[in-house]
């Protein structure tokens, strides 16, 4: 009798169906539920902030498409297939890219990709050959290609750049493996990036490299300008304000004699800008 009374005081055990239901009810039902769980984990210090940003980036990549991160066709730095190597060296040196799209007689068509490393064997060669003799076959993807699928293909084929085409087969832009990875991990620095502690780096009298985090007050002092410091705190904020959207690599903003070009940006912020100063008009 005592045993029966003791048993009656215990909370009733849930059936296996009930337990499964409880587990299912605690699982995220959609992407927002999953994000909320991850943010709670970060709030409880089970994840650090950077890990949370990466996980958010992974989820975002599964929804984004090539068109969302590509460099548009009009912003592409291209080489002509019939150009001689001596003619393209200045462009290769100025932009420092590892790969360049190559165009044919029809400037809207990309016929190949030139790898900068392929130029090394010919840099000291007296034989001046044409770009088309070194270019490689381009990889072409539709602008609707999901980034997670594209990343998998980049890895499988050991490829780093693809030509993006629209529904009619026309070139819409280019996308690189770095463009995709930066959506997950943020900016990827390489040998052409500039030290974070240097807000403004002078290349010559007409060209500068400017960190997007440069305080606008410092920029005004450096260049004797009077950009609105009440509306914007940083140069990057000023650029976002002018464009009214999150800038993409290659986008330009002109303000008086100043032309800003976005060199580095991801889905969350601008990182690096190229500044060119136009000559004053002669009176």
Which key features would you list for this structure?
283 residues; alpha+beta; CBS-domain; Uridine Diphospho-n-acetylenolpyruvylglucosamine Reductase, domain 3; 5-stranded antiparallel beta sheet; 4-stranded mixed beta sheet; 10 helices
Could you please describe the fold and organization of this structure?
It is a single chain. This protein is α+β, with helices and mostly antiparallel strands. The protein folds into three domains: 31-63, no CATH class; 67-185, CBS-domain, CATH 3.10.580.10; 200-277, Uridine Diphospho-n-acetylenolpyruvylglucosamine Reductase, domain 3, CATH 3.30.465. It is built from ten helices and twelve strands. The protein has helices at 2-9, 16-26, 31-43, 49-61, 66-69, 85-95, 147-157, 177-185, 216-223, 235-243, and strands spanning 71-72, 79-80, 99-103, 110-115, 140-142, 161-165, 171-176, 200-204, 207-211, 252-255, 258-265, 270-277. Helix 3 (31-43) packs antiparallel against helix 4 and helix 4 packs across helix 8. The longest helix is centred in the N-terminal third of the chain and has 13 residues, at 31-43. It is globular. The model is unreliable at 4-14 and 19-24 (pLDDT under 50).
Number of domains: 3
Largest sheet: 5 strands, antiparallel
Helix content: 25-40%
Q: Looking at the structure, what is the overall shape?
A: globular
Radius of gyration: 26 Å
Order of helices and strands: HHHHHEEHEEEHEEHEEHHEEE
Distance between the termini: 110 Å
Strand content: 15-25%
CATH architecture label name of the largest domain = Roll
